[in-house]
């Protein structure tokens, strides 16, 4: 599927749940004059891939086929109109929108009593769910209704209260907006390069930690801003590769969400699911199996817990849970346990359009994770097939750390498959890619140097000597917190040890990871205010 106007109608129809589709078809028949439009909707729904020429041929006798783009836009409008009606009660934000529209209609008919009744109901939702962006509009209608009343002393006090409500709402919305944009600035730092790989990250994290919005938390009354505060702190700690503090910050956000289900109920995809994702990602890095699987179950239950039947919510929860489970197994050496979830991951990539779903970074991460899972299982050809799928995203200019790892894994797979004929060419190609990025870190330098020497070995004794030399170099990287993370994406130390000892890679990888397991008491069950240990 492409991001092209030509495909918008197809994408919209395919995004509909069964219930939504049934509702749209049923109610469109009542409002659409020409029944052939409904037949067009059904014909598009039956297509697995969009074929406009086939549709034009099928409806060649219809007048509107000569203006096919106009017909598609009309059908999009019809579907959206029915979707608005179908989802009118699906979220508090929708309810407020509908109530404000009804208030405007009633005001024009001067039905003041009913108008005030709806206004009171709308205001309660705005306050309970902290929908501050609606406060000023709500105050506007309350003001208009108030001036229609006979003047008395109470009116002055009421007008002051209306003004205060509007100003407080604007202040709260402004604060939330400030946190939202700060969170973007922090997240933007890792969009291109992924996990921090340079000591300059310490300075970057320190500068973020000194931002006025992070020095102290926002008012407890602004729950959404407090959520952004914890979410941003999680990312700052991630930049600083302090995953214990990152875990505490993400845990604080998850607990805040659990205490305020009404406030966050409308932000399942943008806040709730990502909050669990961040917490689980920290549990993977810290190898906390009990914490991980307890919260993974909660992530999987989010659609049911919030009684949300949206296909998008269900998909996002499923996508993230599958990826995280696979990452837990691969990052912690459990390659022998990943068969079932690996199959699910492959199905996601092959059957879902993740990029058009807004998950371009996730698509790269999952492709690489599948490649590494197959590598760990000794299926080098399958691993290389998925490496190539990862490298298809090379020009996207995101998660270049994983693109680098994919290049290196590509070389190792070819070496394992005995495909030495083109290895020198692939080595140069990988080196040129990394050099162009200007991101040649210690791990990449040592790996490329090792592989270059590997090509010219004459016998097995030279191979053993070379492995021993470079094994020590790679082990030295584990003491560098900015290189340690990359070894979780490609445990080359376990790979080299398996060659020296003649043992299976998965056994060594698992034992090494468990030896470095972080004790639970280092994490603790309680969180406190985040205190960065970063120095300028």
Describe what this molecule looks like in 3D.
- This protein is mainly alpha-helical.
- It has 28 helices and no strands.
Outline the fold blueprint.
Elements: H1 8-15, H2 18-31, H3 36-46, H4 52-58, H5 68-86, H6 92-108, H7 112-129, H8 135-147, H9 153-191, H10 200-209, H11 212-215, H12 223-239, H13 243-259, H14 261-264, H15 268-285, H16 289-300, H17 302-305, H18 311-331, H19 339-351, H20 360-376, H21 380-391, H22 400-416, H23 423-437, H24 442-455, H25 460-477, H26 481-489, H27 492-501, H28 505-515
Helix pairs in contact: 1-5, 2-5, 6-7, 6-8, 7-8, 8-9, 9-12, 10-12, 12-13, 13-15, 15-16, 15-18, 16-18, 18-19, 18-20, 19-20, 20-21, 20-22, 21-22, 22-23, 22-24, 23-24, 24-25, 25-27, 27-28
Keywords:
single chain, 536 residues, mainly alpha, 0% strand, globular
Give the gist of this structure.
Helix content is 73%, strand content 0%.
CA radius of gyration is 28 Å
The end-to-end span amounts to 47 Å
The fraction of residues in strands falls at under 5%
Please count the helical segments.
28
Shape: globular
Major beta sheet summary: none
Percent helix range: over 70%
Low-pLDDT segments = 518-532
Say how many strands there are: 0
Mean pLDDT: 85
Q: What structural category characterises the helix and strand content?
A: mainly alpha
Order of helices and strands: HHHHHHHHHHHHHHHHHHHHHHHHHHHH
């Amino acid at each position: 599927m492409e991001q092209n106007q030509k495909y918008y109608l197809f994408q919209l129809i395919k995004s509909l749940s069964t219930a939504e589709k049934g509702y749209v078809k049923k109610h469109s028949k009542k409002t659409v004059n020409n029944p052939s439009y409904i037949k067009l909707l059904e014909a598009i729904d039956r297509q697995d891939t969009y074929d406009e020429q086939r549709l034009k041929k099928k409806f060649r006798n219809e007048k509107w086929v000569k203006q096919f783009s106009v017909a598609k836009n009309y059908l999009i409008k019809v579907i959206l109109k029915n979707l608005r009606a179908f989802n009118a009660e699906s979220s508090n934000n929708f309810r407020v929108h509908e109530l404000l529209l009804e208030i405007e209609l009633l005001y024009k008919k001067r039905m003041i009593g009913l108008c005030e009744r709806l206004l009171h109901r709308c205001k309660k939702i705005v306050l309970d769910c902290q929908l501050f962006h609606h406060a000023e509009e709500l105050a506007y209608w309350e003001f208009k209704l108030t001036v229609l009343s006979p003047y008395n002393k109470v009116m002055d006090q009421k007008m002051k209260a209306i003004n205060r409500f509007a100003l407080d709402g604007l202040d709260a919305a402004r604060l939330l907006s400030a946190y939202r944009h700060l969170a973007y600035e922090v997240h933007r730092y890792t969009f291109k390069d992924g996990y921090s790989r340079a000591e300059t990250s310490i300075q970057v994290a320190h500068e973020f930690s000194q931002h006025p919005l992070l020095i102290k938390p926002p008012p407890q009354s602004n729950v959404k801003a407090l959520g952004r505060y914890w979410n941003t702190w999680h990312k700052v700690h991630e930049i600083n590769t302090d995953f214990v503090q990152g875990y505490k910050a993400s845990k604080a956000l998850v607990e805040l969400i659990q205490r305020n289900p009404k406030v966050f109920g409308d932000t399942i995809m943008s806040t709730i699911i990502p909050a669990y994702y961040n917490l689980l990602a920290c549990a993977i890095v810290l190898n906390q199996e009990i914490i991980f699987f307890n919260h993974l179950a909660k992530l999987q239950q989010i659609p049911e817990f919030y009684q949300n039947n949206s296909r998008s919510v269900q998909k996002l929860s499923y996508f993230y849970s599958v990826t995280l489970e696979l990452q837990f197994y691969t990052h912690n050496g459990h390659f022998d346990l990943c068969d079932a979830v690996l199959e699910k991951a492959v199905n996601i990539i092959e059957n879902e359009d993740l990029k058009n779903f807004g998950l371009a970074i996730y698509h790269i991460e999952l492709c690489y994770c599948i490649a590494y899972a197959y590598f760990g299982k000794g299926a080098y050809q399958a691993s290389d097939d998925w490496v190539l799928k990862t490298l298809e995203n090379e020009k996207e200019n995101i998660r270049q750390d994983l693109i680098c790892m994919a290049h290196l894994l590509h070389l190792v797979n070819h070496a394992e498959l005995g495909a030495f004929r083109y290895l020198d060419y692939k080595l140069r190609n990988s080196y040129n890619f990394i050099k162009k990025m200007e991101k040649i870190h210690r791990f990449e330098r040592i790996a490329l140097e090792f592989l270059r020497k590997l090509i010219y070995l004459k016998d097995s004794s030279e191979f053993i000597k070379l492995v021993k030399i470079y094994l020590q170099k790679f082990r030295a990287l584990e003491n560098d917190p900015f290189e340690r993370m990359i070894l979780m994406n490609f445990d080359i130390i376990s790979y080299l040890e398996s060659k020296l000892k003649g043992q299976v890679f998965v056994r060594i990888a698992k034992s090494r990871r468990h030896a470095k397991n972080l004790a639970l008491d280092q994490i603790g069950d309680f969180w406190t205010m985040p205190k960065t240990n970063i120095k300028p």
